[in-house]
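Good day; I would like, with your permission, to put a structural problem before you. The record follows directly beneath this note:
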Amino acid sequence: MTIRHKAAACTVAGAASLVLAALSSVPAAAHGSMTDPVSRVSACYAEGVESPQSAACKAAVAASGKQAFYDWNAVNIANAAGKSKQIIPDGKLCSAANEKYRGLDLPRADWPSTKMSAGGHTFHYKGTAPHKGSFALYITKDAYDPTKPLKWSDLEAKPFVEVADPKMENGDYVFQGDVPARSGRHLIYSIWQRSDSPEAFYTCSDVVFGKDSGARGAARKATAPTDEEIAAGAGKSSVTHQGHGGGAPAPADRGGDARKTAGAAPGTATDGANAPQANSAAEKPGIELAETGGDSTTPVIAIAGAAALAVGVTTALVFGRRRSAAGSR
């Protein structure tokens, strides 16, 4: 083989490598959950999925199955596109109308809670797959009754905190907000809407101002999962971070029952058998759109460029052979 032919072969091989790399560079989906104040799903995961400590978490795991809590960071709607209030029905806010997480919607006054007070507060949201986007936090009205299913009308119409692309510290999104004055047991609802995708994530955090007016006896204090606990349960998680992470499609308009009109979300576990989500391949480390500034067209561009390079090299090689043959004649 001549030097020219060797060089051409190496170039084609390199182009093929680029194609393979591009095919594997699917954007990572965002995942995470509120850890201050602690969300319901985070608190139950931290208690231990196999043997939760609080009565509320025991009931939630019984209703949803264990897999939902090993998948604590994926309460999402893949194509919410800023229409959360229109597509999530009353009574299903905490699960985002995802049947897999139905246990989070249980109306109880004894969910593990976080002490809260009016005024400035530093919020933490664990971002297990960070992405660009905005956070909106809503708080329940004075007349909120935790023993009834949570409705949109139970929340103040406008968020008390709105922030876009907050800073990250040690894997947490960290941002400030002024908490309105309340008394007794309340709930803080968060919507994390991605700006590089229509996907959104949701949390319900039970909070207590002063004396707990809802729980009978002493309700368990909510604790967030530690990094060690997150790592320990990662092997049992069915969540992957490609595309939209297998999240539920947009459910029916909140005027109807999403389970009746839309059925269970494709690719999600819907029963106590803990069926895993039918998601795509595992996340490729380092491919984070929040850091690269890319979007869903990035892999397509890379593939097209690599293919064009391969075609160009092949064409040059063919013409080179033809000129060589003509010269020999």
Observations:
- The chain has nine helices and ten strands.
- Residues 7-29, 243-319 have pLDDT under 50 and may be disordered.
- The radius of gyration is 25 Å.
- Residues 3-24+296-328 form one domain.
